[in-house]
Design goal:
heterodimer; A: about 500 residues; alpha/beta; seven-stranded mixed beta sheet; 16 helices; B: alpha/beta; globular
């Protein structure tokens, strides 16, 4: 990766253009030809208009078009439009240079816990970019979009088979958006039964940060349930929380420690008996892919992240897709919440469906188990260098609580989790998720996925061991990391104190 | 184990890994899962397909769709997509990257988001923008919540029924449970009162009429509320900006900035606001900083506002959303520049007015809003049976005359040629009165 320090605005030269639009298109309309005899005349007329003398040539031309179309001047833009003026090759080189400061799944391994950074198959991209799909208007009549509807129906059926839910809505555009939609469904269910007092939702202390945030914006009060020493939801702590004010519980299973909540059967019974519903956060669905179905565990509502479990690319933070599935109880309300404008992120749905067809009923059974195998392999290979707080078999991910020997000594601070993460960048790996879950102070959360080979895992393990050795020898090597990236550690404090948010 | 290209494991690899993991077989990895929950059935999925079979499968599905010349907008505009955009956005360094948490290896993503924020500010005239929203309608809903968070002890918002239907539907959904009172009104200013936090109005209404918002900001501000404008960012190249109207927050969908209509998504929403409300804007924000050696760099900033810090005190739960689509719009705006974006509007506007005049000349329509200005989208009253009109257009390969509030709506972008417009008008002429 090489450092490149331009913004597109800094390449701008007035008069340079990067677009190609039909030159004579305006003059072909008799409407304009009649009134100006030619486009050139319109331009000339605009040029000599004294009232618009301060405007640029293009601004004058638009003013003229607007006048011919009876658009009053009072509703036209007055201020200068300061966009870059660059050629096509400037644009291509600039963004190519920017891309070369980025790490992606195609660049290397992403052991990012709870993020499921699996390989993004290329056939998915080809299908999602097919003009027979990208050219469809969202409001086209049903008989002209039969193929698109079959995609939605087929994906719905496949996801129902994989999860044990009845049906899905595809409106949510991301995981958090799915949580919000799912909680709205939870509320619709209770309200429809006249059960308006159910305004509290139980969230374990190990939950993803979006869970309480989604509940809060859905007008629900959050009740936290503690994890026990084994890292699992403590059923005895849960019992006293249950009552007529509980709308439901949000669970991630396996949880963010990568541990399967083995008492889920009892939890489901308790929550249902008190009149509540169970919400399944699908962020950690990957280890269960082809093995365990949330519907069978008693969940009533769930979301999936198609950009995690179903291989669609993360795009540097979207577009994702967070379809919400429901069981029998909630099915009548499935299409009540309209949380996005049209049919959801259709392009992402195409990719996920292509992936599922490639997997088929045969390969789907291996996806979860191979992901779990990779995680356990790494865990067992590193537990002598990094603290493993809960030493049981994990699912797709596990959490270390920092280095066993952080190198701390008289006058020298030890290496932290942040230092380890940054040092990994030097060795060509993305960092794991760090300081999450909040249960451990030095949390390092590692998730490999089933698309990584044994060689890749071995390289990662070797580097993690090397970093542990470096820390023991001299933690300063880690304090200063990364050393080989386009930039070093940023000054985040100044950025927040004196924000510069635009060029 | 060989036999699936996405799984690199050989039988030997699996043996080695199982041994290290200390379990006998793959099932042993699930010993902590109660047996009842291990799915024993056959998954109701098709047999695994080869890549060629998958390609053929979708080719056949695609052929079941009808390719139409699009003459409808209503929130999804068929503007031209320059070849450079998909070329750049499909670069795997952008496409397969995660959210830019590790800024040292995400400067590409962070820089284009910073450019996107800057361009949204320049289009709207406002001070602060974020790393994008899901889409226009949900951005509008988030802006209303933001208005409630920005004003004290005010829990009511007014939403103009001149907005497109999908914006109204999403707003209604979003505000139902946090218990914010929503008043839907055609004349929003009549509803102002001391409990109103925000007022949401469109810059172009659902019937295509460009709104004159003179006096709106003054009256809304007098009542102590915030003015939120829903706008088409492409049209902002030529129409009065939210800043010029005095709006506090601008929202909308960035789809018209070079994104394919793609059956409704993925698109990206945008939000921008005045400096005063910077700390209440939802979602991720990228800011400029320097690294330890003084090099300019970009980071996610002001994170104390965000859901993962605020958790149960959050006013929004949005985190990562439509980053790659923001790149899509940023590359588009770089290519178009001020002149290109104006030309797009000029050609769309001219084509739409030509179609409007020609349709009226057929005698099959009456004006719906005589004398009211429009840009690329308009409504007419149809004198012929609307389903017949729609079907005749479909039969000729056109999607137009979508019914809305008893009118029919049409839209023309720079992609539609005069020949296409003439052909559509000819179809209309052939319909008996």
């Amino acid at each position: 990766m090489k450092y490149y320090d331009k913004l597109i605005f800094e390449l701008s030269h007035p008069g340079r253009i990067g677009y190609s639009l039909p030159a004579a298109a305006l003059q072909q309309y008799p409407f304009f030809a009649e009134k100006c005899s030619s486009g050139a005349a319109a331009d000339d007329a605009a040029k000599t208009d004294k009232a618009t003398a301060s405007l640029s040539f293009g601004e004058q031309r638009f003013a003229r078009v607007a006048a011919l179309c009876n658009i009053p001047k009072a509703i036209l833009r007055e201020s200068k439009l300061d966009l870059p003026e660059v050629s096509e090759v400037d644009v291509v080189r600039h963004y190519t240079n920017l891309s070369q400061m980025n790490f992606g799944v195609d660049t290397g391994f992403y052991p990012l816990g709870s993020c499921t950074m699996k390989y993004n198959p290329k056939i998915n991209e080809e299908i999602a970019n097919h003009p027979l799909f990208t050219g469809l208007h969202p409001l086209q009549p049903a008989e002209t979009v039969k193929g698109a509807q079959e995609v939605i129906d087929g994906l719905d059926k496949a996801l129902a088979a994989i999860t044990g839910m009845k049906h899905f809505t595809f409106l949510p555009c991301a995981g958090a958006h799915g949580e919000l939609t799912g909680l709205m469904l939870m509320r619709e269910y209770h309200m429809a039964r006249g059960d308006a007092a159910r305004t509290k939702v139980i969230v374990p202390d190990s939950a993803h940060g979006t869970n309480p945030a989604s509940a809060a914006v859905c007008g629900l009060e959050i009740v936290e349930v503690k994890s026990g020493a084994d890292g699992l939801v403590d059923v005895e702590s849960l019992k006293p929380l249950l009552g007529p004010d509980i709308a439901g519980i949000m669970m991630t299973n396996p949880n963010t420690l990568g541990l399967f909540e083995r008492q889920i059967g009892e939890i489901a019974k308790l929550v249902h008996d008190c009149g509540g519903l169970l919400y399944y956060d699908g962020a950690n669905m990957n280890p269960l892919l082809g093995k365990v179905r949330p519907g069978d565990m008693g969940f009533d509502i769930m979301h999936l992240n198609l950009h995690k479990t179903f291989s669609t690319p993360h795009g540097g933070g979207g577009p994702g897709s967070g379809p919400v599935g429901v069981g029998e109880r909630v099915l009548p309300y499935l299409h009540t919440p309209q949380t996005s404008g049209f049919h959801g992120n259709f392009g992402v749905m195409l990719r996920a469906y292509a992936y599922i067809l490639m997997l088929g009923k045969q390969n789907v059974k291996l996806a979860g188990p191979l992901a779990v195998l990779g995680a356990n392999y790494i865990k067992e290979s590193l537990k002598d260098c990094y603290k493993l707080p809960i030493p049981s078999v994990c699912k797709h991910e596990f959490v270390f609580d920092g280095l066993i020997n952080d190198g701390a000594r008289e006058g020298k601070a030890g290496a932290t989790t942040l230092d380890v993460a940054k040092r990994l960048l030097d060795y060509g790996f993305h960092a794991p998720t760090i300081y999450f879950p909040l249960l451990f102070h030095q949390a390092i959360m590692i998730e490999p996925t089933e698309t990584e080979s044994l060689e890749t895992l071995d390289e990662f393990i070797a580097v993690m061991r090397k970093i542990a050795a470096e820390a023991a020898e001299d933690p300063d090597i880690l304090h200063g990391a990364p050393h080989n990236t386009p930039i070093g550690r940023p000054d985040e404090t100044t950025a927040a104190r004196n924000p510069i948010l635009k060029a | 184990m060989a036999g699936f290209s996405y799984f690199p494991h050989t039988d030997d690899d699996i043996r080695v890994m199982l041994e290290r993991a200390g379990v006998r077989n793959l099932d042993g990895l699930y010993s902590d899962v109660p047996a009842d929950f291990i799915y024993q059935g056959e998954y109701d999925l098709p047999d695994a397909m080869s890549e060629q079979q998958v390609r053929d499968f979708f080719e056949k599905l695609g052929e079941k769709n009808t390719k139409l010349k699009v003459f409808v907008g209503q929130g999804a505009y068929d503007h031209y997509v320059p070849a450079v955009i998909p070329y750049i956005t499909s670069r795997s360094e952008f496409l397969t990257a995660y959210t830019p948490y590790q800024c040292e290896i995400s400067q590409g993503t962070l820089r284009y988001i910073f450019e996107w924020q800057s361009m949204i500010c320049r289009l709207t005239g406002l001070d602060v923008s974020n790393a994008s929203m899901y889409d226009g309608p949900s951005a509008a809903a988030e802006a209303l919540r933001m208005a409630v968070a920005c004003t004290r002890k005010r829990n009511k918002v007014i939403v103009s029924t001149k907005l497109m239907q999908n914006v109204l539907d999403v707003v209604k959904t979003y505000l139902k449970y946090p218990d914010i009172e929503v008043v839907f009104a055609w004349d929003v200013l009549d509803e102002l009162g001391p409990d109103v936090a925000g007022v949401l109005v469109p810059s172009i209404c659902r019937h295509g009429v460009i709104q004159d918002l003179t006096g709106y900001a003054e009256k809304v501000h007098e009542a102590g509320a915030l003015l939120i404008e829903y706008c088409d960012p492409s049209a902002l190249a030529v129409l009065k900006t939210p800043d010029e109207w005095g709006a506090d927050i601008a929202v909308g969908d960035a789809q018209p900035l070079g994104m394919p209509i793609c059956y409704g998504g993925p698109y990206a929403g945008f939000i921008a606001c005045k400096q005063d409300y910077m700390r209440k804007i939802p979602g991720r924000i990228v800011g400029q900083s320097v690294d330890a050696s003084g090099k300019r760099c970009f980071v996610l900033t002001l994170q104390a506002r965000e859901q993962h810090i605020r958790r149960e005190k959050a006013t929004s739960n949005i985190c990562s959303n439509e980053s790659l689509m923001a790149l899509w719009a940023t590359v588009y705006l770089s290519l178009m520049g001020p002149e290109g974006l104006r030309k797009v509007n000029e050609l769309s506007c001219a084509g739409a007015h030509y179609l409007y005049d020609e349709l009226l000349k057929t005698g099959r329509f009456e004006e719906a809003f005589p004398g009211r200005p429009f840009l690329k989208e308009f409504c007419l009253k149809s004198k012929v049976d609307i389903p017949t009109l729609q079907q005749k257009l479909l039969d000729a390969g056109f999607f137009g005359a979508l019914e809305i509030d008893g009118y029919v709506t049409f839209c023309v972008t720079e992609k539609r040629t005069k020949e296409e417009i003439d052909a559509l008008v000819n179809v209309v002429r052939g319909i008996a009165l």
